[in-house]
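Changelog-adjacent note: as of this version, every example in the card shows the full chain rather than a window. The one below runs 107 residues end to end.
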Amino acid sequence: ITAGGIAFAPPLVRLVFGEAFADSAAVLSVLIAGAALMLAVQPVAAPFLTMRNPRLLVRIQGVALVASAVGYLVAVPVFGVLGAAVVTLLTRLGVGSVTLAWAWRHA
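Full-length structure tokens:
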């Protein structure tokens, strides 16, 4: 689904929003990749919320919030909306990596 979403982002954006918004297909592709990362991590993260260590996820998300804010302040003025999408993707990658690493260590 992810690969299809990324592959069909350019024609889909053109079809729905018109040629004027064709450049936003790159942003959509990056955001689709980020969403796929989070969906892949959710089955591992969900048990932490219910029975393991919900405070850990709160701390991870808190660090991600600060990292995202700093990233947006740096990337958006230089790269615009694509920079914001890349910061979002990198933040999700970081959250997913830390969550999976912690789960692997404590499984």
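Structural remarks: The two ends are 29 Å apart (CA to CA).
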